[in-house]
Amino acid sequence: MDKDNFSGEKALIDERRKKLEQLRNKGNAYGNSFKPENNAKDLHEKYGEFSKEELVEKKIKDISVAGRIVLKRVMGNASFATLRDSSGDIQIYVTKNNVEESVYEDFKTWDLGDIVGVSGTLFRTKTDELTIDVWDLEMITKSLRPMPEKFKGLTDIEARYRQRYLDLMTNTDTKEVFIKRTKIIDSMRKKMNDCGYLEVETPMMHPLAGGAVARPFITQHNALGQDLYLRIAPELYLKRLLVGGFERVFEINRSFRNEGLSTKHNPEFTMMEWYEAYASMQDQMDLTKDIILSAASAAGCDSKIEWGDTNINLSNFKQATLSELVIEHNKDISRNDLDNKKKLEEFLKNKKIKIEKNWGTGRMILEVFEETVEDKLIDPTFVTEYPVEVSPLSRRNTENPDYADRFELFIGGKEFANGFCELNDPDDQASRFEDQVAAKDSGDKEAMDYDHDYITALEHGMPPAVGVGMGVDRLVMLLTNQSSIRDVLLFPQLKS
Questions:
Q1: Are residues 288 and 420 in the same domain?
Q2: What is the number of domains present in the chain?
Q3: How far is it, in rounded angstroms, from Cα 479 to Cα 300?
Q4: Phi/psi zone of residue 211: left (φ > 0), alpha (ψ -120 to 50 degrees), beta?
Q5: Would the pTM of this model clear 0.70, i.e. be above it?
Q6: Mind listing the pLDDT tens digit for each residue in 63-103?
């Protein structure tokens, strides 16, 4: 903030503080007795179609609302103002004839941003606007800082994230995004409940970093005298519940990954992860599709939506293997090349993609896919048959053990869900943990630890199962047409 703006704002705050002191002297600076019986949205929905004459005839009295003053016009003995509550805006009409003269004189000095309560009768103005004719009003909360400019709102992107309360206060589009977010999550939870899944809660602090390939946050438990890791994913705990006898479980969870900040990634994010014993991959792809379509309906979306400059048809779900897509989108790669490490190395070098010395052909194929195919999968596409090398917790395919029974869902060129038949062979899982430990020893900071207790759980027997993880934040981005993850998080992480 420049010097002139700072001094101007300070003067406004000083003036408002003087008004606050006057209110304190009267004993009504921060009231807590007013209880609104109505809100703006309900009034518009219930009475919005009533004519002037109908409102006069019905004599709709005892209307009471509370909200923030966002507009105000003082005209001598009568004044108009607009109140904004959590549901929307409603106009009020205050006159010296209907309220005590001292109250009216006080009202004329109240500021934009003040929170007030009013009671009165509904009518329509000459401009046909539904309005409350006020016969009682009171100050509820004095605002000491001015609101953003009424016509511009809060336009600075950084300020909108850092001061989300001002963004919500002034930008109705922002509020609508977060209302839709809640509706989307509610629809996801309802779908899982309707399908017989049990919602559970698992630890957010883990003794080992596991459940996904990612760099963890590390914290210290003073009483135990040991390091703990913020949850990368709930996977290994949810699968312990399968061992325990819960056959359908899900968790809408907060997870944490110590990675970079971008418009697509926040270190703290929301996922829904679920597991079902005795299910097939196709079962879970069908359920994933149903969850997304239900969420789209909850958000008020049609089957054809826009995401930025991209047009997406949610009624056009496709399915293909990872290898098929790599070959389809890279005419200089043949099916035989996918088993040739040297050929893949040459291809990646030509694409100026850095190759790590510990990569096998599976990791290279995935890298080719991510660099050349992923962003071309616009309509919903289930990608199947991932290399085992990049799927350390997935069951091997019976017919081709180099590949895992795994799928990922891509929409608009972005990943939305990851699912696979769970590995329940304790010896195979132990071997893959050992590979992860070796990778970590070689410098891979995202590799998993060896989880001995999880192996013990598997040795007790885990039924065959399919598990799926779906990014909630990204789904909200898609269904609200937002390009940045920060626009669907109330309080995104920002550099200080």
A1: yes
A2: 2
A3: 9
A4: left
A5: yes
A6: 999 999 999 999 989 999 999 999 999 999 999 999 999 99
